Structure prediction request, 333 residues.
Amino acid sequence: MKVGVIGLGYWGPNLVRNFLATPGVEKVYGCDLDEKRLAFIKSRFPAVELTKDTDFVLKASEIDAVAIATPVATHYPLARKAIENGKHVLVEKPLTASVKEAEDLVNLAERNKKVLMVDHTFIYTGAVRKIKELIDNGDIGEIYYFDSVRINLGLFQHDVNVIWDLATHDVSIMDFVINSKPVSVAAFGTSHYNGIEDIAYITVNFDNGIIAHFHVSWLAPVKVRRILISGTKKMIVYDDTEPSEKVKIYDKGVVVTSQEGIHRLLIQYRSGDMYAPKLDDTEALSLVCKDFVESILEGRSPITDGYAGLKVVKILESAEKSIKKNGILVSVI
Prediction:
């Protein structure tokens, strides 16, 4: 298989490196309009064939699949053109800039029998896969809430707000580990510099009463990457900034009983041990590339397929609509 990577800025070189190491990939093409980026890739990966011609990568019959690591606004036109020209497509997060665009790509890929995948890299980390396993096995019990904080100082984006930049990660994790349907979103955000929201708070409500909350910001003095998940049996803390023990399981919770005759609830607190499970430390992006290639060869859907990308875009778009309407509750269609 021959794979083309369009966009060699921040994330593109990582895709190039991992595709070169992915079994089943015979050759990698790199494409960027910036000569300096092409020169950088050439110095790092001499085997990569480089070009400034995007159309060549999108149309060349010898290229089987295309990975797109360009600004969000370009995802849809590039991915659509690639699929129309018979390519399988991996798109950097978020899948597109709107629900309408995402739906069109999903339908187009289905009609053309092509793999459409979104690079929700965190889904492939050992930490998130372990959290998914714990929840699916019933170790955590029924989920009460999902709470996420992803804040730091910068990097300010010029084409998308902080929701589309940072919340994408944690919304994709939420969608992966919680097996319930989100029904509504409320969000507040504000801009301090260039008219684009740089801090936001998002609340997602589910059909079974689960609530999820996201705090994202480019204006924090410290870098925080933390998710809390509370269940009826145990609680999870996932801190991605921890060098080790990124996931901790707490045997803590609340025990509620009813005192007959008085009709009064008795609430007691349970506080047990904490343990940190061993995690697979395989580079997540290598597993993304592997899943993409194997999905093509085996004719199956990848874990983070077009539908997964669409579900995340639906929540992001609903959150943006809510912000523009001062936090009004917006239904997730």
User: Anything to note?
Assistant: Residues 121 and 285 are 6 Å apart (CA to CA). The chain has a mean pLDDT of 94. The longest strand covers residues 219-231. DSSP finds nine helices and 15 strands in the chain.
